[in-house]
Amino acid sequence: MTMASAEQAAHVLVVDDDREIRDLLGRFLAKHGFRVTTARDGREMHRAIADWKIELVILDLMLPGEDGLSLCRGLRATSQIPVIMLTVMGEETDRIVGLEMGADDYLTKPFNPRELLARVKAVLRRTQFAPASQKAAGRRMLCFAGWKLDTGRRRLESPDGLVVDLSAGEFDMLMAFVEHPQRVLNRDQLLDLTHGRAEAPFDRSIDMQVSRLRHKIEVDPKNPVLIKTVRGGGYIFTAEVTQNATPGT
């Protein structure tokens, strides 16, 4: 495993069984100010996460032993570390499955390292790596249907008082809805609100993120009440949203 020397930069873990790709991405990301650790399989990935405070994982889909999808699913079940998946496959189905397993973004090989860099920065901006002052300035407590969303701490609490873990993508999707309640949002609008970049016209990542979010906040995800589908239009968040003061603000 290797690590760059920048002490205050975000720590990125690159998991790929191809040594050339590990070395290339390690050097490239370190050149742009990131701390980088590399791993060749799931075992080394888990060891790195145990040894270091990892802010983001770049995870290859095809790995020896446990594959990237399984590793992503396991990682999402135990942590909120954002994941960008890499694959040589270009099929839309593979992308959808990756997002469904909890990946925050997805990039198909071969790719331009600068595009990966842009996505790394975008994902980190949407996660806990934002500066503390920025978090405090934007901290709000948004309430809907008994749920409480602390935007600064990125913490969602159910009506029963249970904390529900959200991936970066799920948090962004929920924020898009609670900031635009009782308004139909089409897929292009949701892409703008959650990603801030253009996506392929037939990309189904929005539908997958909505589906995952429904499983977190709906009593019956198959018969949603809070996030309803508008035929030919997109989605609408039906709940009334109120804003309360948060402690320490």
Description:
- The protein is α/β, with parallel strands linked by helices and about 250 residues long.
- The protein has nine helices and 13 strands.
- The strands form three sheets. It has a five-stranded parallel β-sheet with strand order 2-1-3-4-5, sandwiched between helices. Strands 9-8-7-6-13 form a five-stranded antiparallel β-sheet, with no helix packed on it. Strands 10-12-11 form a three-stranded antiparallel β-sheet.
- The longest helix has 13 residues, at about 20-30.
- It starts with 10 loop residues before the first strand and ends in a 5-residue tail after the last strand.
- Residues about 1-10, about 130-135 and about 195-200 have low confidence and may be disordered.
Strand order of the largest sheet: 2-1-3-4-5
Q: pLDDT under 50 segments (min length 5)?
A: 1-8, 129-137, 196-202
Strand content: 15-25%
Category from helices, strands and their pairing: alpha/beta
Order of helices and strands: EHEHEHEHEHHEEEEHEHHEEE
Radius of gyration: 18 Å
- Based on Cα principal axes, name the global outline: elongated
Number of strands: 13
Span from first to last CA? 42 Å
Q: Helix share of residues? A: 25-40%
Instruction: State the helix count.
Output: 9
Mean pLDDT, rounded to whole units?
82
Largest sheet: 5 strands, parallel
